[in-house]
C-alpha cells in the first residue's frame, strides 16, 4: 500500500520539554551558550555544531547555508570555509551576519547576530593541520561556489593535488576561518501552545550585556 505523506499544514508539534527564565540564563550569554551546547551534546543532538549562517551582499541580497562551529572563545564563534565562496564574497562586502542553531531534541534555538572577521593565519593553519588528509585536499580541489562543468573536474583536481603534495598538504590561502563577534544572542526554548520563552541579550556600548525577554 502506498504511504500517503502528511499534509504539510497538518504537521505540528507542541513543545513541552522545558522552560527558560531570566534567572536560569544568568548574565553571561557566552557561559549560557556553553551550558546549552554541552546539554545538546549530552542529548545526542546530531551535528550539534551545525549552524545556519546568513550573509547579505552589497546589493542587500541574503544567502543562508549551514556551516560547522569549530571554535568558541570569549570573542566569538568560529567557522572555516573558502574565502572565495559566496559567503566569503558577501562578508567582504558586508560583515554583518547571523547564525542560528536548532537543537530539536531539546526544543531549543539560539539566534546570534554579529560581525564576521577573518581569524589569524596562524589560527587557520592550526585548524587546517588538524583536518583529515582528504578534507585538506578537498580544500584545494573545490573552487567552492563556482560553476563547474561536472563532477569529473573535482576528481581530476583532487588527484592532481594529491600527486603534487603527497601527504604534506599546506593550507590554501583562500581557505580559512571567520570569527563572528556577537552583538545579539537570543535563547529560545519551545513551550506549549506556542507560548515560547525567549531571552534576548544585546551588547551595550560599554561592552556589557543587556538581558530582556521577547514575546514569542
Ligand atoms: C551539515 C553541514 C555542514 C557544513 N559545514 C560547512 C563548513 O563548515 N564550511 C563550509 O564552507 N561549508 C560547509 N557546508 C556546506 C555549505 O552549506 C555550503 O554549501 C558551502 O559552504 C557553499 O556556500 P556558499 O556558496 O553560500 O558560500 C556544510 C553543509 C552542511 C549540510
The top-level CATH class is: Mainly Beta
Percent of sequence in beta strands: 25-35%
Query: What is the correct CATH architecture?
Result: Roll
What is the CATH topology assignment?
Pnp Oxidase, Chain A
According to CATH, the homologous superfamily is: Electron Transport, Fmn-binding Protein, Chain A
The helicity comes to 25-40%
What is the mean predicted local confidence, pLDDT?
Answer: 97
Most strands sheet: 9 strands, antiparallel
How many structural units, i.e. domains?
A: 1
Look at the helices and sheets and give the structural class.
alpha+beta
* Rg (CA only): 20 Å
Would you identify the regions where 5 or more consecutive residues have pLDDT less than 50? none
Could you say which overall geometry the principal axes of the C-alpha atoms support?
A: globular
What can you see in these coordinates?
By secondary structure, the chain is an alpha+beta fold. The protein starts with 21 loop residues before the first helix and ends with a strand. It is globular. It has one domain (14-213): Electron Transport, Fmn-binding Protein, Chain A (Pnp Oxidase, Chain A, Roll), CATH 2.30.110. It is built from six helices and nine strands. 23% of the residues are buried. It has helices at residues 22-25, 29-42, 86-93, 121-130, 133-141, 151-165, and strands at 50-56, 62-68, 71-72, 77-82, 96-103, 108-118, 175-189, 197-203, 209-213. The model has no long low-confidence stretch (mean pLDDT 97). Residues 47, 50, 63, 65-68, 79-82, 85-87, 144-145 line the site of flavin mononucleotide (FMN).
Amino acid at each position: 500500500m502506498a504511504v500517503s505523506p502528511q499534509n504539510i499544514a497538518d504537521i505540528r508539534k507542541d513543545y513541552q520539554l522545558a522552560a527558560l527564565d531570566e534567572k536560569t540564563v544568568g548574565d553571561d550569554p557566552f557561559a549560557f551558550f556553553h551550558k546549552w551546547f554541552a546539554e545538546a551534546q549530552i542529548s545526542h543532538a546530531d551535528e550539534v555544531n551545525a549552524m545556519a549562517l546568513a550573509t547579505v551582499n552589497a546589493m542587500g541580497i541574503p544567502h543562508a547555508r549551514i556551516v560547522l562551529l569549530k571554535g568558541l572563545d570569549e570573542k566569538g564563534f568560529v567557522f572555516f570555509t573558502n574565502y572565495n565562496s559566496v559567503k566569503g564574497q558577501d562578508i567582504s562586502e558586508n560583515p554583518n551576519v547571523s547564525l542560528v542553531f536548532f537543537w530539536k531534541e531539546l526544543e531549543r534555538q539560539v539566534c546570534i547576530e554579529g560581525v564576521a572577521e577573518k581569524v589569524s593565519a596562524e589560527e587557520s593553519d592550526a585548524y587546517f593541520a588538524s583536518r583529515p588528509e582528504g578534507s585538506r585536499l578537498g580544500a584545494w580541489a573545490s573552487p567552492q561556489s563556482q560553476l563547474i562543468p561536472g563532477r569529473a573536474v573535482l576528481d581530476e583536481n583532487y588527484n592532481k593535488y594529491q600527486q603534487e603534495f603527497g601527504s604534506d598538504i599546506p593550507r590554501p590561502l583562500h581557505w580559512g576561518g571567520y570569527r563572528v563577534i556577537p552583538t545579539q544572542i537570543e535563547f529560545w526554548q519551545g513551550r506549549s501552545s506556542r507560548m515560547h520563552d525567549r531571552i534576548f541579550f544585546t551588547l551595550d556600548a560599554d561592552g556589557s550585556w543587556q538581558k530582556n525577554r521577547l514575546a514569542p
